[in-house]
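ZP: hey, is the 9MR complex queued? I don't see it on the tracker
AM: it wasn't, my bad. submitting now with these inputs:
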Amino acid sequence: MMMNRRKFLTSSSSLALSTYLMSYSGSSLASLIENTGLKDVFKDKFSFGTALSTATLSGLGNSSDQLKLVAKEFSSITPENDFKWANLRPKPNSWGWDLADKFVEFGQENNMQMVGHALVWHSQIPDNVFFDKKNKMLPRSHLLATMEEHINTVVGRYRGKIHVWDVVNEAFKGGRWRKSHWYNGIGEDYFEHAFRFAQNADPSAQLMYNDYSMDNSKKQQSVIAAINQCKRKGVKIDGVGMQSHLHLDGPSIKQIEQAILNYANAGLRVHITELEMDVLPKIQDYASADIGNKYAYREELDPYKSGLPLAMEQKLAQRYEEVFKLYIKHSDKIDRVTLWGTSDDESWKNDFPIKGRTNYPLLFDRNQQPKLAYFALKKL
Ligand code: 9MR
């Protein structure tokens, strides 16, 4: 425990700690810092999660420190990549369960809520799932059978252990169905079938639709309409995942709040599933996480290579605080808030939508030390 404290004080985040000390007037400060994590701050509100990267699950680099930090701070985990089709099943009949099993073992050891991400998605899935050797789309019945077998195998293996599934991920682009191979090969009802298969495979799991830009009103309408249609047919969908790849400058709290209210009014539970706060200059719609969008590197778009200025650090803390105050206000509708990674070095935002920038979107810095934003949340 003392070692942790010393690490705080000698790290670049000593400023963050002293700011926190100044603003905290409670009596058991030492125990608050050393023994409790953010999960304890939010325990009566929602579960508090992070994503585990492939490097962390593989035991690479500083992964053992990272796992200790995760166990202390978070009550829920999502695999960033290792339950995706291409990772789990690179060839039709060769399954690689190693990292997925490690994920589940870690979650069980630490008594965490576990989220399976993601069963049906257009990305990170081999083409041979959809096309024959002559590059012809396989028949609808074949695609449905593959989907069912995949869901049965993955959900079945972890039945009763994984509590929440992102069953369908990113099925809409703005207000329209994304023309993915699933959509083209099966039709709109691929959506409904995915949820049916998941429900059959584990009737007790919480089943979610997950997407980015969920505060966009056109997307909201399409998502809610598609879910309502399924529910009318008796298909179980418990809620929506608002990925929440946010920027310092937007979307506004008002816009996020309206989205939470709209989903809740449609009878859906809300999960915040992939939260982070991009601090770098924007090159496209800030809320988008469409991984198809990539742009060329330019120096002026990468201004904080040698560190984030204090004013920006404070702005980031303030934005995190505002967003979490909103989540707390609506904690009767929100079951979980998950960050898309633990420390800045592992964030996908260092490489998206431009490769090789230095971003600062998470709560822990590149030395796994808590940032001002962390302390801003700790005192909520
Ligand atoms: O964070 C993930 C990154 O490591 C992968 O390279 C990327 C590839 O598709 O996927 C990232 O996670 C995505 C998530 O699975 C779905 N929503 C958008 C996330 C960021 O792209």
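AM: back. The two ends are 23 Å apart (CA to CA).
ZP: great, adding it to the tracker
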